[in-house]
Amino acid sequence: MLHIFNTLTRTKQEFKPLNAPHVGMYVCGPTVYSDVHLGNCRTFISFDMIYRYLVHLGYKVRYVRNITDAGHLEGDNDEGDDKFAKKAKLEQLEPMEIVQRYTVGFRDVMRQFNTLPPSIEPTATGHIVEQIQMTQTIIDNGLAYEVNGNVYFDVEKFSKTNNYGKLTNRKLEDLLTNTRELNGQDDKRGKLDFALWIKAKPEHLMQWISPWGMGFPGWHIECSAMSRKYLGETFDIHGGGMDLQATHHTNEIAQNIGCCGKDPATYWIHTNMLTVNGARMGKSVGNAFLPHELFSGSHPLLDKGYAPMAVKFFMCQTHYRSTLDFSNDALQASEKAYSRLMEAYVKIENLKTSASSTTNVITIKEGCYAAMNDDFNTSVAIAHLFDAVRFINSVNDGKETITEADKATLLALFNAFVNDVLGINETTQNNDKLLATTDSLINVLIELRNQAKANKDWATSDALRDKIIAAGVQLNDTKEGTKYSIF
Question: Using CA atoms, how far apart are residues 318 and 328, in angstroms rounded to an integer?
Answer without folding.
Answer: 16
